Amino acid sequence: ISTLTDISRYGLTLVIGGGEVSLLDMTSAYGVFANSGIRNQYTGILKVEDINKKVLEEYFPNSREVLPKNTALIISNILSDEKSRVPTFGSHSILFIPGKDVAVKTGTTNNNKDAWTIGYTPSIVVGVWAGNNDNKPMKKGGSAVAGPIWNKFINEALKVLPNEKFEQPNLETDPKTVKPILRGYWQGNENFFIDKISGKLAGEFTPKETTQEKVITNVHSILYWVNRNDVLGPPPSNPYGNPQFNLWETPIQNWWAQNGNRYKITTWAEKPTEVDNIHTENPLLNISIVEPNTTSIYLPDQRIQLKLLNSGIYPLKKIDIFINNTFIGTTETPSNFSFIPEELDNLMSENELKIISYDIIYNRTETVSIFKIKQ
User: Fold this and answer.
1) N or C, where is the chain less crowded by C-beta within 10 Å?
2) H helices within 17-95, ranges in order?
3) How do residues 214-246 score in pLDDT, each as one tens digit?
4) Neighbours of 154 (CB within 10 A)
5) Whole-angstrom Cα distance, residue 292 to residue 161?
6) Do 341 and 372 meet the contact criterion of CB atoms below 8 Å apart?
7) What is the pLDDT of residue 375?
8) Domain 287-373 of CATH type 2.60.40.10
């Protein structure tokens, strides 16, 4: 972006429009989202040839990753979600392109002086700015003024472009690798994990279903915990060196002094000293497949009743059933589950049955057996 040259003017408000940018730069920046985090410098000319088709000049992109791929995919996932736009823009608004996966964002400056709409697919980015050349206010904002222009153009462009879908992002965040303050915990940034069943520290084999995070209460501005030059890294050694710090920290501390007694306080004294010992490398869950058995030969139209033997300590919570590596179903009552071989695809004379079992404390085990079908 070529227009952000006066660093002294910009603070945290830059993220909500505190600096001037050109339509070309803004549209090019959105191209990073469309391209899964990869930046290509924009150019107006791809190739220059002479009368004999000899190439005189040619543009070759110098691609580089400027944003983690999954971050770009998450942004595209948000901006292409029609349901999330409905409360603000209404159903099937000017931002909606029927049958197409299109991400779009609008923007309006103070007093409706500038109206923006920028939207994209994986193949094209279209940006529209609308405003008066004397900077007088308009009667309406982004979607109402720039939106119809954007909609008409991208609809025409998509007629000759492939109907593409955005790759789905990974929406699971590992709480053990991403600091609490970046996952929405305002209480603090230091933590430990316990197993809810045993009450002890979560260990290597503690399942995520029984893992509970405890965040130590130590309320500060996010700038206390996040180094702006290394967001995912350790906290800054001297947060007070950030000229913005006190502007955010002081009101937060004033609020906490008045309201802290309304919230539960978590301290390091609550951290257990022992590690979860009921979820282990060899879980206390032992499942045997009784039916179908390995010696019988079943008829294709015969209903086969599943029968399991649980010799573990805890009752079963559920099982997942696979036949020849194809998922068949999930049930909390194995004795009620049955199947007819000829109704299943890809059954052979000899077939593999795999049962993934979970007990009530989320111990997990896999059991595999072979059963035969008469051909």
Assistant:
1) C
2) 23-34, 69-79, 82-89
3) 999 999 999 999 998 898 899 999 999 998 899
4) 23
5) 52
6) no
7) 85
8) yes
